[in-house]
User: Fold these one by one.
Assistant:
Number 1:
Amino acid sequence: MSGLKLYNTLSRKIETFTSIAKGRAGLYTCGPTVYNFAHIGNLRTYIFEDVLRRVLEYDGYQVTHAMNITDVGHLVSDADEGEDKMEVGAKREGKLPLEIAKKYETAFFEDLKSLNVELPHKVLRATDAIKEQIEIIKTLEQKRFTYKDGYAIYFDTSKLPDYGKLSGQKLSDKKTGARSGVIVDTKKRNPADFALWFFLAGRYKNHILHWPSPWGEGFPGWHIECSAISRKLLGQPFDIHTGGVDHIGTHHTNEIAQSESALGKPLANFWLHGEFLLLKEGKMAKSGGSFITLKTVLDKGFSPLAYRYLCLSAHWRSKLNFSWESLDAAQNALDNLYEKISELEGSPSIAMCDDYARAFDREINRDLDMPRALSLTWRLMKKPNPDKLKLSTIKHFDRVLGLDLLKGAAERKKIPAEIKELAARRDEARAKKDFASSDRIRKEIESEGFQVRDTEDGTLIRKK
Ligand SMILES: [Zn+2]
């Protein structure tokens, strides 16, 4: 099998990936809380996870990719406080939580499709796995990892000496301090203890979604759903668990605590966490004013794959600064790449530029180094090699890049000669600083149903 190297948060090291079952890989991705649209920061994580899955498939693994959908129990704060996000969404739109869930789940999968993110093979909603969640809580209760008060059943973190092993103790302290603020439920024995099951009491007295349980009517906490769903869909242990870095300190730490205490074996062998997308104002969050969705991106005339290209241009473990200028540069780069590929003659065959294929192999297997894989793609385009070989190499690369490179190039070929002629005339006008003519030609091109973009390489046109 391959020499795939991945940075494992659990060991804080780059390790060679080996799977539990030969030739197969089980991958679990924390899914969305479906109370609102995903923002592009969330989507960056799903693009990273898609690259991981595509590299595993490229390496010949038969991947089973599983995901949960959070439609109950995810509170506004990770510290077991605040409203259920689903009820926040329901109130905002005057609908029932499950109506909200359905709407945003559909929108989420539409976003993934337009970003060429391969959809998970198995998806399970938290509300469809209540029985499995109750089972784990029962086991934890039997093993004396729980206690309860009038509001909830809690996991007692003091029973688990290596509770903070995923984040490292220091980081965990810092994160808890920064994120949760004041502990409201003073009956909690330790600040890190977390709710497994909420009762219909206190602020949750009127919680709309609730189910019977051995402890009375209530609803599950957020963390227990991923423990139950990953185990049901992939077994325990499974190979790789992924999510955003914001999941390390609380959500994933708690998943590990529950699952490993209940079953006495690891939950997953590899833990991979994608870094944040940053705006000038800081991290993107639904609670702040800086909430950009994929629809915002499309409404501004960008293609969804330009956003994918932008994400690939940064390493998944590096923070990525988002700006409209950087997205603009990504769109230009992608359109230019399509243009260069469209100039190649013939059609792809089996034979490839072998040295480039080997180099690509090396970069993607070295902790998913997509920035280097992208620059390799550009170097290939500049290489004096037969067009046919280049085309088949590009096709091969696109299995992992997922940028529709041949399709995008074919669409550029369909741009009529007279439109291309107009673009060339516009470049001449711009070179002479004749901006009146350049503007007039731009309008003419746009009226034919094409979008005009100015790049370092001159006018770029794209079908609207
Ligand atoms: Zn999760």
Number 2:
Amino acid sequence: MVTLNKVMNYIAPLPVILVTTRLEKDGKNYDNIIPISWAGIIEHSPHMININISKGKYSGTVIKKTKEFGVCIPGSKYLEQVDMCGCTHGNKVDKFKLVNFTKYDALEINAPLISECPVNMECKLSNVIEFKSHEMFVGTIVKTYVDDEYVSEDGEPDYRKMDILCYVNGYYWTLGKKLEKLFYTSG
Ligand SMILES: Cc1cc2nc3c(=O)[nH]c(=O)nc-3n(C[C@H](O)[C@H](O)[C@H](O)COP(=O)(O)O)c2cc1C
């Protein structure tokens, strides 16, 4: 075992999700997409998630104002579009136009969802927790969509078909292969 000279955080894999926002200004909608990997599950009743955005980013300021956001899960075929959304800023560029994603209206929130993403979720902001460099936005999921094309026979999302992206230590990965069902050793 090698002890590193510096402390690192090698937790992997992380998800690659697209968080959408809408800012209304002077009667116009300004829609945006921010790719996020520092994200996780907090609670299941109701379903709550956290996304962590570094302080001062455009998307974070919008979410604090509107108190809602979409969470859209892209397949790996949209790698380039995902990366482009992570290299540009919503206060300067219309990322929906930039990457040519198709919007559809959410039912419970005023933010766009992305047709190209096999899974979309609507979130209402429940809390913001401030850390040194990042802010943790806690969202309650209020609506969930799975594209029919990616629903398996048991009604669950088919992750093999979806071929979602992961983020590992500076690189994009895909998911890999399915092994056993959770708790399969419990008999
Ligand atoms: C795959 C990927 C994951 C990212 N994860 C995060 C993250 O978890 N938190 C964060 O603050 N920025 C993250 N970024 C960087 C933001 O997406 C990037 O700064 C973006 O341009 C900010 O958009 P905005 O200026 O429109 O808010 C990530 C970028 C990529 C490509």
